[in-house]
Design brief:
Blueprint lengths: L1 E6 L1 H11 L7 E6 L19 E4 L2 H11 L5 E3 L4 H14 L7 E6 L2 H10 L6 E6 L6 H13 L5 E4 L2 H9 L4 E3 L4 H22 L2 E9 L8 H21 L3 E6 L2 E7 H4 L2 H16 L3 E9 L2 H18 L4 E5 L2 E4 L7 E4 L4 H10 L3 H14 L3 E3 H8 L3 H13 L3 E7 L8 E6 L2
Parallel strand pairs: 1-2, 1-3, 3-4, 5-6, 5-7, 7-8, 12-13
Antiparallel strand pairs: 9-11, 9-12, 10-11, 13-14, 14-15, 16-18, 17-18
Length: 428
């Protein structure tokens, strides 16, 4: 088993020091980053290489979730009562009369902090808490701390960010590190291992892949040419079926079905082999539409794969889609991929009606927010991602703007002739 430990160097080292003696059978892969945003992008090679991820904090965790798209269990070091008490113990060594102290905290939840102080009878003159917010960077937290220190609103800083800690240390300012305790780290590791076990059982489900060959036969094409094409195709499919430790059969005219497991289909090796297969078919003068489905049995997986294939056929771009657990995923292996739910609750329908959009498109737009980590899109971007015309995009957006759940914030100037494109910000 391989587990990646990702985050600021000192926290990575502490997690390794805590866990390696307890789990000698697990290979821990340390990835040290000193600042978010730029560094996380360099971790894309983790996909398909690890069984789980242990991040050093919620900031790192959120960056990984939004940017890497790893389909493995993940946990992060939380800052609970133990972390707070440990840091305050260090503060007490420098400030014996802690009752008169104004302290600036970050990342910890305010309720957890206040409950901890109350539970252990600790009184502080003032606490300023910067709780985690998705859009805030380390620099935002740092700026707020600097401002509060300069105004005298706090006397010292207790931070979960290694970057913030090192900055204040270099300036010789009173700063203390909020790090998870050994007990908190161990508890999170137990939760991660439990999730990995559940995930393994989940991935042993049946995996079905339906490949539809789209080939325009020329009127003057000889029957022998078609036979050669079919023979070459079968050679390609036979080799691929061995790679996935499964088998295949011709389902109908120009349609082939592969049987294996979800676990095998989600490996990096399978991704490489299948993209090679698609390229080889293209070299034969054809393209494919592909649908993948997972379920506990062959019938359910086949139904799901058929739903995914139908989406690929409608788009007519030779793309690959996946359907399982009431979610559409795709187009796979492309930058425009996003995953959205097809399960619509009664409350979801009511919300969609209030916003002025169909439940289907509400689900898709919500998925865009999560996948691309933003709420602002041009009509061209929405057109390309949703695979509809810009006119259709504008028709969908209009009632959302009218109901106040979206707004035009600026116009993107086009270099070519034509009307400028609107930049739309969704407010939900």
């Amino acid at each position: 088993m391989k587990i990646a430990i990702i985050g600021y160097p000192d926290s990575v080292k502490k997690i390794l020091k805590t866990l390696e003696p307890q789990y000698s059978h697990i290979r821990f892969l340390p990835y040290e980053i000193k600042q978010l945003r730029d560094s996380v992008e360099n971790l894309k090679d983790l996909k398909g290489r690890v069984d789980g991820v242990f991040s050093t904090g919620i900031g790192v965790h959120s960056e990984i979730v939004s940017k890497l798209g790893l389909n493995v269990p993940m946990v992060y070091s939380n800052r609970e009562a133990g972390s707070i008490l440990k840091a305050l113990w260090e503060v007490r060594e420098n400030y014996p009369n802690i009752n008169n102290l104004k302290v600036g905290f970050d990342i910890v939840e305010k309720d957890v902090l206040l409950d901890t102080l109350d539970e252990f009878g600790i009184t502080l003159d003032r606490v300023d808490v910067q709780e985690y917010e998705e859009d805030k960077t380390e620099l935002d937290f740092l700026d707020e701390h600097i401002k509060n220190l300069s105004k005298g609103e706090v006397h010292c800083i207790l931070t979960a960010f290694g970057y913030v800690y090192d900055y204040f240390k270099s300036k010789k300012k009173p700063v203390y590190r909020l790090q998870s305790t050994k007990n908190e780290i161990s508890n999170q590791m137990k939760a991660l291992l439990k999730d990995i076990k559940i995930n393994e059982n989940f991935k042993n489900r049946i995996g079905i892949k339906i490949v539809k060959i789209i080939k325009k036969h020329k009127k003057d094409e000889l029957e022998n040419d078609r036979a050669v094409f079919k023979a070459n195709l079968n050679d390609i499919f036979l080799k691929y079926s061995k790679n996935i430790h499964g088998n295949y059969q011709e389902f109908s005219e120009d349609e082939y079905i592969f049987f294996t497991t979800q676990k095998i289909l989600e490996t990096k090796e399978n991704e490489v082999n299948f993209l090679k297969l698609v390229n080889e078919i293209y070299m034969l003068g054809a393209k494919v539409a592909v649908g993948i489905g997972y379920a506990e049995n062959i019938q359910g997986a086949t139904i799901n794969a058929r739903k995914a294939l139908n989406i690929s056929l409608v788009n007519d771009k030779g793309e690959i889609f996946l359907f399982s657990d009431n979610k559409i995923r795709g187009p796979l292996y492309k930058k425009t991929r996003f995953d959205y739910s097809t399960k619509i609750s009664e409350n979801f329908e009511k919300e969609a009606k209030k916003i002025g959009i169909t439940p289907k498109y509400l689900s898709k737009i919500r998925a865009l927010h999560e996948t691309f980590g933003k709420k602002e899109f041009t009509s061209k971007e929405l057109s390309e991602i949703l695979e509809i015309t810009e006119r259709s995009v504008n028709r969908i957006i209009k009632p959302i703007i009218t109901s106040g759940y979206a707004e035009i914030i600026e116009y993107e100037v086009c270099t070519s002739a034509g009307r400028p494109r609107r930049v739309v910000r969704f407010n939900f």
